[in-house]
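Batch job 17 of 40 flagged for manual review because the log was empty.
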Amino acid sequence: LVNGFKNAGRYEVKFDASNLASGVYVYRLSAGDFNASKKLMLLK
């Protein structure tokens, strides 16, 4: 969704899933030494 550097703060990203099928997707958030992976369930 976003690839690049951001200054500290709060950000919001719109996610357009119109071209994706229903299912379970894995997303990853990385910031400095912090890395987190979570599951997202998309239902249409």
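Reviewer: the log was empty due to a logging misconfiguration, but the result itself is present. Strands lie at 23-31, 34-42. Unflagging and moving on to job 18.
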